[in-house]
Write a structure and sequence with these properties.
Elements lengths: L6 E4 L3 H10 L5 E4 L9 E2 L2 E5 L4 E4 L9 E4 L3 H15 L3 E4 L12 H8 L4 E6 L4 H5 L4 E6 L3 H11 L4 E6 L2 H23 L4 H21 L4 H4 L2 H12 L4 H11 L10 H16 L4 H10 L5 H9 L7
Parallel strand pairs: 1-2, 1-6, 2-5, 6-7, 7-8, 9-10
Antiparallel strand pairs: 3-4, 8-9
Helix pairs in contact: 2-3, 6-7, 6-9, 6-10, 6-11, 6-12, 7-9, 11-12, 12-13
The chain binds 1,4-dihydronicotinamide adenine dinucleotide and 1,3-dihydroxyacetonephosphate.
The site of 1,4-dihydronicotinamide adenine dinucleotide (NAI) has 26 residues, from helix 1 and helix 2.
């Protein structure tokens, strides 16, 4: 894996497209999408962005199997996709770009890769980064997590550009749970704002939500300091405070009692249920996560969820 080596990206949605634009600054990129036409230069999920000449588009996965393969698919699609294409993908360096917990298995993206492709070297790219910012060339810092440190160093170098600054860690569980759980808390933050509860309530949700993220992640084997990094606190702050976030916007609509376009990817909905199940299995109390899961599944209203949170016994911070 040399600097400037070709990169394949599977998934031509907002994030796959944005990464293709950014990584084209350092070498050839092949972008595969299930609906892509060969030669297509504009992506429906990434408006106003034309792919640079270094990006080749294809509808044949075989064309995108380069030394590094980024999997820019939603978390709930990853397992089925990998199983379907395991024969082509196993044995490669596979970098998941998804932020979520698989609802069926309770696994994060790296474990999902390992289950479907046991001979692959799995990693995850996460951290605070809106696709529309990356595609515009705005400065962005990400976290690359891989259990194999030498591979983490190689991937860090291969995926960094002058404006895309990639940090690395071997704490895979911490990095991927930070990215997954911040989406759940962002729905809660959006719902609080949408319901008119105000910025003070949002600050409480961010802070207590961060405590929940850390509790679950540490219980699953993460290092607590990973949660204070880009992939945890960094992404939590971004997603809970910007209408650029789909999870936050979904929460806004939920809180305001308004409809939300079901075609938009909102990772926090499935992940809230998956995280609530993990918490039950671990014997942990994650009240905000449980409230988001209940809200999303129609088991609670915004008013009953708030009442339940406020009625909890007083405790030490
Ligand atoms: N959009 C953003 O700003 C960022 C997104 N991410 C993460 O990237 C992941 C992907 O999100 P986006 O690209 O934004 O979503 P998106 O909704 O824009 O695109 C998803 C793409 O995956 C494709 N897809 C879905 N299921 C598939 C399947 N079974 N087989 C093949 N292709 C399939 C869709 O056709 C679509 O092109 C999510 O986990 C998200 O959290 C991470 C950082 C930033
Ligand atoms: O993960 C993201 C930014 O880091 C994108 O957030 P949304 O999926 O909520 O749009």
């Amino acid at each position: 894996m040399t600097s400037g080596a070709p990169i394949g990206i599977l998934g031509a949605g907002a994030f796959g497209g944005a990464l293709a634009v950014a990584l084209a600054a350092r070498g050839p990129v092949t972008l595969w999408g299930r609906d892509l036409r060969p030669g297509q230069r504009a992506l429906p999920r990434l408006r106003d962005v034309d792919l640079p000449p270094a990006v080749t588009t294809t509808d044949r996965i075989e064309d995108a199997l380069d030394a590094i393969v980024l999997l820019a698919l939603p978390a709930q699609a990853l397992s089925g996709f990998l199983s379907q294409h395991a024969a082509l993908l196993d044995g490669r360096a596979l970098v998941a770009c998804a932020k979520g917990i698989d609802l069926n298995s309770g696994l994060g993206p790296v474990e999902v890769i390992a289950a479907a492709c046991p001979n692959a070297t799995p990693a995850v790219l996460t951290g605070p980064s809106f696709a529309h910012d990356i595609a515009r060339g705005l400065p962005t810092a990400l976290t690359l997590a891989c259990a194999d440190e030498a591979q983490a160093i190689a991937l860090q170098a291969a995926l960094s550009t002058p404006v895309l600054r990639v940090y690395r860690t071997t704490d895979v569980i911490g990095a991927e749970l930070g990215g997954a759980l911040k989406n759940v808390i962002a729905i809660a933050a959006g719902a609080a704002i949408g319901a008119g509860f105000g910025d003070s309530a949002r600050a409480a949700i961010i802070t207590r939500g961060f405590a929940e993220m850390t509790r679950l992640a540490v219980s699953r084997g993460a290092r607590a300091d990973t949660l204070t990094g880009l992939s945890g606190l960094g992404d939590l702050v971004l997603t809970c405070t910007s209408e650029g976030s789909r999870n936050f916007r979904f929460g806004l609509a939920l809180g305001a009692g308004e409809p939300f376009d079901p075609a938009i990817t909102v990772e926090g909905v499935a992940t809230a249920s998956a995280a609530a199940a993990l918490a039950r299995a671990e014997g942990l109390d994650l009240p905000i996560t449980a409230a988001v899961s209940d809200l999303c599944q129609g088991r609670a209203t915004i008013q009953t969820a708030l009442a339940a949170l406020l009625a909890r016994p007083l405790k030490e911070e």
